[in-house]
Amino acid sequence: MAANTQDTAIRTSRLARAAIYAVLLVFVIYYLLPLFVMVVNSVKTLDEIRGGNMLSLPQIFTIEPWLKAWGTAQIGVSPTGLKPFFANSLAMVVPAVVIATLLGALNGYVLTKWRFRGHDLVFGMMLLACFIPFQIVLIPMATVLGKIGLAGTTPGLVLVHVVYGLGFTTLFFRNYYEAFPTELVKAAQMDGAGFFKIFYRILIPSSGPIIVVTVIWQFTNVWNDFLFGASFADFDSMPMTVALNNLVSSSTGVKEYNVHFAGAIMAALPTLVVYVVSGRYFVRGLMAGAVKG
Amino acid sequence: MSFLEIDNIVKHFGSVEVLKGVSITLEEGGFLVLVGPSGCGKSTLLNTIAGLESITAGEIRINGRRVNELHPSKRDIAMVFQSYALYPNMTVAQNITFSMEMRGVPKPERDKAVQEVGRLLQIEPLLKRKPSQLSGGQRQRVAMGRALVRDPQVFLFDEPLSNLDAKLRVDMRTEIKRLHQSMGTTVVYVTHDQIEAMTLASSIAVMRDGEVQQFGTPSEIYNDPVNIFVADFMGSPAMNLIQGRIRSDGGALAVALDRDGAEPLTLAVNGAGEGLNGLNGREVIFGIRPEAITDAEGADRTAKNVIQTECAVEVVEPAGADTFVVTRLGGREVIARMRSDTAVDAGSLAPFAFNMDKAVFFDPATEQRIA
Q1: pLDDT tens for residues B262-291?
Q2: B146: which chain A residues are within 8 Å (Cβ-Cβ)?
Q3: B81 at the A interface (CB within 8 A)?
Q4: pLDDT of res. A292
Q5: What is the pLDDT of residue A115?
Q6: A124 with A206, same domain?
Q7: In the prediction, which pLDDT does B38 show?
Q8: Which residues, including other chains, have CB under 8 Å from residue B116's CB and lie 6 or more apart?
Q9: Of A208, A126, A120, which is closest to residue A168 (Cα–Cα)?
Q10: Chain B CB within 8 Å of residue A192 CB
Q11: What is the pTM for the complete model shown?
C-alpha cells in the first residue's frame, strides 16, 4: 500500500511537471515570436513581405536590407544610414555608464563607510531622484544645458544621463556596501590605507556582481532612451533610437519594412550583447571567506 | 611609568555615555584582558585605543606618548578583529603584507617578512590561497599573521576566538599565550569568556555599563572579588551566593543559612571575619566557590578552617573530572564540586566540607564586599 501511494505521487508530479513545461513553452514561444518575425522579415525582399506571410521563412535570403539600414538609408534629410548614429550612441553611452557607475560606487562607499551627520537624508533625496519623471526635468534641463554651453552635444547628453542615473547607481552600491563588513574598512585603516586606497584596493575588487548589475541597468537605460535624445540632441549628436524613429517614420517613398526590421534589430542588439556578455560574470560567493559566516 | 595608560576616558555616542571614566594602566609586555557582558563597553574601549573611535574626554598614552589625535595607522598598534577581516580579493600573503605595502616597504623585504610570519604561525602552505579557501582556524592564524608582521608596540585582540569551535578555541588560546610569551609584546585582549580571561591575562579589567568594576591580577579577581557582579561573572560554575545572617556567639562569629525543613546551617567564620564585627544579626550575602565545597576527603588539606556538615542532596551531575552536587541553602541552589568517584545519591543526606578560608561576604543592599 505504501508503495502504491508513492507510485501515484510520482505520477502526479510528472503530470504536473509536464503541465508546467507546456505552459513555459507557450510563454517562450510567445516572447520569441516578435524577434522571430523581425529576424525573418529583415532578410526577405520587400516583394516577398508584401506578397506573403509575416511568419513564413524567406524564399530568397538577402542581407541587402541590413546593408541599406546600416549605410545608405534615408534618415531625415540625408542618406547616411544608421551608422553615424550608432557611433553617436556609443559615444554617449560609454562615458555615461562609466561615470555614473564610478560616482555611484563612490557615493555608496561614503554613505555606508564614512557616515556623516544627515547621511540618511542625503540618501533619501538621491532615492527620490529615481522617481522624478523624465518629462518634468525637460525644460529646466534644456535651460541648464544652454547656459553651460552643452546644448545639442554628446557631452550634454552624457551629463543628463549621468545625473539621471546617479540616483539608481547610488542606490545599488549603497545597498551592496551596507552589507560589506565594516571591519574590513577598519582593518585597512589600521594598515594605513587612506580613503581612496581603501576604495579601489578593498571595495572595488569585491564589487563585481553589483558593478555588473549597475552597468547592465545603466547601459540599457541610456541606450534605449528616446525622450532625452529627441529633446537635447542635434542632428550631429542624435542617438540611435531617435535615428531609428526617423528611419521608420519617414514619409517619403515606399515603406521598406525589411530595412526597418533590420534597423530595429541593430538598435536593440547592443543591450542584448551587454546582457549576454556581462551576465556571465554574475558570480556569486565573491565575498566568501572575507568574514566568518 | 606604565607602558599603556588609559586615563579617565569618557565616550559618548550621542546622548548615551558608553564609557564613564575608565582608567587602566598596563606595564610593558603585559597581557590585559577586558572582560564583561555584552554592551559593557569593552569593545568600544578597545576601538578607542586603536583610534577607530574618538574619545569625548580623557587621554590615552602609549609608551609615554599621547595618541588621542593620532590616526590608527600612526599609533604603532596592530589589531586582530573578531571576524578576522581578511581582504577577500587578496591572497594570504598579500593580506599579511598589505600594511607594509601601504608604508612603501620594497617587495623583497615584504616577501621575507611573509616567510618569517608564515613559519612562525605554520601557514606557509597557505600563502598563495584566498581567504575563502581557508578554514576558520586558518583564517584566524592569517589574521594574527597580519598583526604580527607589523611588529607593533601593542597588539589589540577583539574577541578573536569567539568564532571558532570549542576544541579549536582551546588550541588557539594556548597558541596565543605561547606567542605572547615568546614575543613579549604588550597585548590588550577583549573577550566575554571568563576562562579566556583567566588563562591569558596578566591583568584583568572586569567591566560593566562603561565602568571598570575591578582591575587586578587573575587571582585577585577570582579570589577577592570586590562586589557581587565580579564574583558572579568570573568562574564556571559561578560562585554560590547565598543569603544568610551573621550570628555572634560570645565573640565567635558565624553565618547562618536557612534550610528547608531543617535547622539553619551555621558555619563559623574564623580569621576572615574582621569586616563582620558588629554586624550581629545583619543580613549578608555569603559567597563561596563550588570548589570550596567538597566531599570530606576532597577538602583542601592546607586550609585552616574546613567545616564538615551534612546536607540534603538535590541533584548529582557527574561531569567526568568532577561531580557537581547540588543542595539548597538560603533558598538558592548551591553547587559543590566533588571528586568524580564520590558516592552520593540524589534525595539523601551527604557530608559536605566547606572551606571557610575561601568564603567572602557581601552587603545585600550595596552588593559591595564587606569581608
Answers
A1: 788 888 887 655 677 777 788 899 999 999
A2: 187, 191
A3: yes
A4: 41
A5: 85
A6: yes
A7: 87
A8: B149
A9: A126
A10: yes
A11: 0.78
- Indicate the pLDDT class of residue A286, thresholds 50, 70 and 90: very low
Q: pLDDT band at A287, cuts 50/70/90?
A: very low
Whether residue A284 is contained in a domain is answered as: no
- What average pLDDT does the segment A54-62 reach? 83
Is residue A63 one of the residues assigned to a domain? Answer: yes
Please tell me whether the interface predicted TM-score (ipTM) of this complex is above 0.95. Answer: no
Domain that holds residue A192: 84-279
Q: What is the pLDDT of residue A108?
A: 92
B223 class by beta-carbon count within 10 Å (0-12 exposed, 13-18 middle, 19+ buried): middle
Class of domain B4-233: alpha beta
Query: Structurally, how many domains does chain A consist of?
Result: 2
For B45, the grid coordinates are: 574601549
Q: For residue A272, what are the contacts with CB-CB under 8 A and spacing of at least 6?
A: none
**A277, exposed or middle or buried, with CB in 10 Å at 0-12, 13-18, 19+?**
exposed
CB A169 within 8 A of CB A101: yes
pLDDT tens digits, B178-214: 889 988 899 999 998 888 899 999 999 999 998 999 9
Select the residue from B47, B73, B126 to test the A interface by mutation, using most A Cβ atoms within 10 A.
Answer: B73
Q: Report the candidate in B249, B335, B234, B247 with the shortest Cα–Cα distance to residue B294.
A: B335
Q: In what order do the strands lie in the sheet with B154-158?
A: B77-80, B154-158, B186-191, B31-35, B203-208, B211-216
Name the burial class of residue A9, with classes exposed (0-12), middle (13-18) and buried (19+) by CB atoms within 10 angstroms of its CB.
exposed
DSSP string, A238-288: --HHHHHHHHHT--SS---HHHHHHHHHHHHHHHHHHHHHHHTT--S-TTT
Contacts A184 to B, Cβ<8 Å: 85, 87-88
Handedness of CA A232, A237, A241, A246 (dihedral sign): positive
| Cα nearest neighbour of B96 on chain A | A191
Give bridge partners of residue B118 from the DSSP assignment. none
Mean pLDDT of A156-181: 90
Q: Are residues A30 and A167 in the same domain?
A: no
Q: How far apart are CA A162 and CA A145, in angstroms?
A: 13
Q: Where are the domains of chain B?
A: 4-233, 240-362
Considering only the beta carbons, identify the residue of B72, B89, B131 that sits closest to A190.
B72
In this structure, what are the phi and psi dihedrals at residue B354, rounded to the nearest 5 degrees? -100, 120
A147 plus A258 within the same structural domain: yes
C-alpha cell at A240: 540611435
